[in-house]
């Protein structure tokens, strides 16, 4: 990564003041309860302003996993909502993670859209990692055009109907990222090919999956790429 890019990220993280984290709750859409009869969602809110940004975590993470990135986005003028899915932590065997249906996750993202609009957001973008990326993509595809200004799909394909995605789209994945079925890049590339313009596919080196990328040497490049995409004219 070029020196200028590293300095730019360091300025965002170190020179800008930390943005307070506030725990919030908000209702699901009418009739939506899902896992364990939950009628409302929990989230962490950062920053202020009218540019809403939803952060949707992966299945092995929780909303707190976005804390470092959320503060960077907030310092760049976004009203950031790190979303907790309704199925977080409810596995009967006691293991942690996110559980429930893809339909539930998609509805949770849409409830987050409604909440951000209710507190003053004029535009909505979203970043989703792995399971969260799939939920963000499905929410975008099922929404009327203009609901999402930009979406970032991190380590995931473009949902069930990538051909229906709207707005600006960034797909980002590590080249050697793999699951039990093999490398993820071929499926993500196929999904990207089906998505309409404007779109961008960025492949970084390494094997880390989705949000795990932030803890690798590629982390600054990944964050830099996402911030630039979200803020470019």
Give an account of the 3D structure.
With 233 residues, this protein is an alpha/beta fold. The chain has a single domain (23-231), classed as Alpha/Beta hydrolase fold, catalytic domain (Rossmann fold, 3-Layer(aba) Sandwich). It contains six helices and ten strands. The protein has helices at 3-15, 67-75, 102-118, 131-142, 185-194, 219-231; strands spanning 21-27, 40-46, 51-56, 78-83, 123-129, 150-154, 168-174, 178-179, 182-183, 199-204. The strands form two sheets. An eight-stranded mixed beta sheet has the order 1-2-4-3-5-6-7-10, with helices on both faces. It has a two-stranded antiparallel sheet with strand order 8-9. The radius of gyration is 17 Å and the shape is globular.
Compact overview of the structure:
It is built from six helices and ten strands, in the order αβββαβαβαββββαβα. The chain is α/β, with parallel strands linked by helices.
Descriptors:
Rossmann fold; alpha/beta; 24% strand; 8-stranded mixed beta sheet; disordered N terminus; 233 residues
Percent helix, as a range, is 25-40%
* DSSP summary: helix tally: 6
CATH superfamily descriptor: Alpha/Beta hydrolase fold, catalytic domain
Oligomer state of the chains in this structure: single chain
Q: What is the strand content?
A: 15-25%
Arrangement of strands in the largest sheet: 1-2-4-3-5-6-7-10
Enter the CATH topology name: Rossmann fold
Shape assignment: globular
Count of folded domains: 1
Mean pLDDT metric: 89
The count of β-strands is 10
Separation of termini? 23 Å
Task: Describe the main β-sheet briefly.
Answer: 8 strands, mixed
Q: Give the uncertain stretches in residue-range form.
A: 1-18
Order of helices and strands: HEEEHEHEHEEEEHEH
Determine Rg (CA atoms, Å). 17 Å
Specify the CATH architecture: 3-Layer(aba) Sandwich
Backbone structural class: alpha/beta
